[in-house]
Design goal:
- With 259 residues, this protein is of the alpha/beta class.
- The chain has a single domain (11-189, 228-248), classed as NAD(P)-binding Rossmann-like Domain (Rossmann fold).
- Helix content is 44%, strand content 15%.
- It is built from eight helices and seven strands; from the N terminus they run βαβαβαβαβαβαααβ.
- The protein has helices at 20-31, 43-55, 70-84, 108-136, 157-177, 195-198, 208-216, 227-238, and strands spanning 11-15, 35-40, 60-64, 89-92, 139-144, 182-189, 249-252.
- α3 (70-84) packs parallel to α4 (108-136).
- The radius of gyration is 17 Å and the shape is globular.
- Bound molecules: nicotinamide-adenine-dinucleotide.
- Nicotinamide-adenine-dinucleotide is lined by residues 16, 18-22, 40-42, 45, 66-68, 93-96, 117, 144, 146, 189, 191-192, 194-197.
Length: 259
């Protein structure tokens, strides 16, 4: 296999692997030879991803838990080391969208849950992943931020705050850990057709195609992204051949950030 795409013998930890980006990335890395530690609090979805990845030839450990709890991050890293002897790659991807509304109506529980899941989940993930990678003197971490981490997020202030913090953590980790050969980057996707965006329980009365058309209106490419268009970039960022990219927050946004 071309070494840009060869993940054989690599051990990758992916949070939020039951659905959307996390599920698709797990399958892409499994196809390319990686063994996996997969996490999510959706047990049913996680089991399906595990089965898919095993069918593709990967050895998989799947653990359910709430990524907002530090102990869960620690448990995931321990599972990688206990079962596979190392951790080469970590993708801090699990995340939630808030109920949308103006900043003047922001409530404490919404902000707290956004920061607990979308920011602390990444911070504690980094803490425990970096300890193992520091000892190995090697590793690559990808944090999933958002276009909301790069600019204002009208009607989604708590999400925007949490995703900006992910970029701050990414840059800090990259600078602290560059000397020990651990790369830490973030990806900032525009709206993408995953269950987070298409979820009919979030918008029970909406026509999803219409909603997605509206979301895409301001984007130069006039459409939202397909999951594989984001996941392909994740694979490139994590590629063992991509060994000098460190500390950046990469927009994958159909040209939004060029406007
Ligand atoms: N879809 C988009 O438009 C978009 C755009 C930019 C960034 N993102 C980010 O991408 C990441 C993945 O989102 P997605 O679009 O694939 O959504 P998704 O809802 O399909 O997947 C998110 C997964 O995270 C899991 N999860 C949520 N909270 C958790 C918790 N506390 N503990 C453990 N697991 C938890 C969910 O169960 C789910 O399986 C998120 O961080 C999201 O903020 C998504």
């Amino acid at each position: 296999m071309d070494n840009l795409l060869d993940f054989s013998e690599k051990v990758a930890l992916i949070t939020g692997a039951a659905s959307g980006f996390g599920k698709s990335l797990a399958e892409e890395l499994a196809k390319r030879g990686a063994n996996l530690v997969l996490a999510d609090f959706n047990e049913e979805g996680l089991t399906l991803t595990k089965q898919d990845c095993e069918t593709l030839g990967s050895k998989v450990i799947a653990l359910t838990g709430d990524i907002a709890e530090e102990a869960h991050s620690e448990e995931l890293v321990k599972a990688a080391v206990d079962n596979f002897g190392k951790l080469d790659i970590a993708v801090n991807n699990a995340g939630i969208a808030p109920k949308l509304g103006p900043l003047v109506h922001l409530d404490g529980p919404t902000l707290s849950r956004q920061l607990d899941v979308n920011t602390k989940g990444v911070a504690f993930g980094l803490k425990h992943q970096l300890r193992v990678m520091a000892a190995q003197k090697e590793g690559a971490i990808l944090n999933v931020s958002s276009m909301a981490g790069l600019g204002g997020t009208p009607m989604g202030s708590s999400y925007g705050a949490a995703k900006h913090a992910v970029i701050g953590l990414t840059k800090t980790a990259a600078v602290e850990c560059g000397p020990i050969n651990v790369r830490v980057n973030a990806i900032c996707p525009f709206f993408t057709s995953t269950p987070m965006v298409d979820n009919p329980t979030m918008n029970p009365n909406d026509n999803i195609e219409e909603v997605n058309k509206n979301l895409a209106r301001g984007c130069p490419m006039k459409r939202i992204a397909r999951v594989e268009e984001i996941v392909n970039v994740m694979v490139m960022i994590l590629s063992p051949a991509n060994s000098y990219m460190n500390g950046i927050a990469i927009p994958v946004d159909g040209g939004m950030s060029a406007m």
